[in-house]
Design goal:
Blueprint lengths: L16 E6 L3 H14 L9 H4 L15 H4 L8 E7 L5 H8 L4 H6 L1 H5 L4 E2 L21 H19 L3 E6 L16 H9 L7 H11 L4 E3 L9 H10 L2 E4 L6 H14 L3 E11 L2 H6 L2 H19 L5 H4 L3 E8 L8 E9 L5 E9 L2 H21 L4 E2 L22 H15 L10 H11 L1
Parallel strand pairs: 1-2, 1-4, 2-3, 4-5, 5-6, 6-11, 7-8
Antiparallel strand pairs: 7-9, 9-10
Helix pairs in contact: 1-4, 1-15, 7-9, 8-10, 9-10, 11-13
Length: 447
Amino acid sequence: MSISNSKKKIAKPTGPLTVFLPGIGAVSTTFIAGVELVRSGLNQPFGSLTQMGVIRLGKRTEKRSPSIKDFVPLASLDDLRFAGWDIFGGTAFDAAKKAGVLNPQDIELTKDFLQSIDLMPAVFEKSYVKRLTPKVVKRAKSKMELVEKLREDIRNAMKNHGSVRGVMVWCGSTEIFIEEGKVHQTLPAFEKGLMKNDRQISPSMIYAYAALKEGIPFANGAPNLTVDIPAMVELAKERGVPIAGKDFKTGQTLLKTVLAPMLKARAIGLNGWFSTNILGNQDGEVLDEPGSFKTKEVSKLSALEYILQPHLYPQLYSDFYHKVRINYYPPRGDNKESWDNIDIFGWLGYPMQIKVNFLCRDSILAAPILLDLVLFMDLAQRASRSGIQEWLSFYFKSPMCAPEIYPEHDLFIQLTKLKNFLRYLMGEELITHLGVEYYEENRSRRK
């Protein structure tokens, strides 16, 4: 199939864009306050590809490298409006203080704005996130009734903000591990499950279904089984809505998707990769429960298998041992620390080791991901791109893709896919990095 280089039709980003956030905690408040600080000229959007990234166009000799935000028609930060749900009530200001990520000065600078965002009662059931005890939740006789309450919230927020466009990104806690079942296979089965309160339909799925029914793009920032089920893919295509996920790629897994491709590129073998973390925020508390941890563990373990492809490189990777641990350590708060011990072998089987100690700030790494996803998902909607947005794999630990293919986890392949998709939308030549044209042209001139 040939790829057309004609510019695709993209609707202009007119009017406000409402950002819907289920779960107003550390990541959400860091994102909201950060957007307000940036658009007020008080800080910089470090870590955001949409705000600080550039994209090369054409040949290297052409020296065309515009900023991404000038190349594609993204919504302006000034157009963003915010609405969200949480189980603790109050305002976004209350949530930001509780999260303790931002320093008091930054919280104070955004106090008035954060206080203007009242948090709506959330859809929540303790059996799915056992370590949290809610203060305010929605009540209904069925999960379908909860859907209708969320849809009403969405419509009211859109009306209040005067917007006709929205994006929803799940920023709630990691739910217990759920395996895909019959209720997830078709849209009629899923809707029947909503009416019958099926236990395999979690709160995050209720949010995703409500968003898609309202024509709102949905991305999943947690490792939950949520929008990555056949019923949701079916609904997204039926409603013409983009979906993406899952699990923001922030700390330890971000490093794995850089280091593992290096090992494979140089045919360096792997005997074992031991990963451990300490984390003291609400996310750490939730993941201290075995059911929620299993959901996260599956997400964090998957990257190495897909990148290293043991079936293609059995002598190098068929027997490596991979272990991931997360330890709840309250004194550290949102400042996560990870350690990786990597046992490798090289020429003639001689052993070597790599040690990595990453002291990061979980929400500081996640907030710009959230911003980029909001702007890119809105772009996809305006470009009439529905269903799975594989080009956004760059941002996720467990990226979604078509069922007949495997997901790409290599960070740099993911970045190439993202930038080539933007070039494709704008009718620019896709870049393969082959580079032979520079040398073939020179040879032709010499002849």
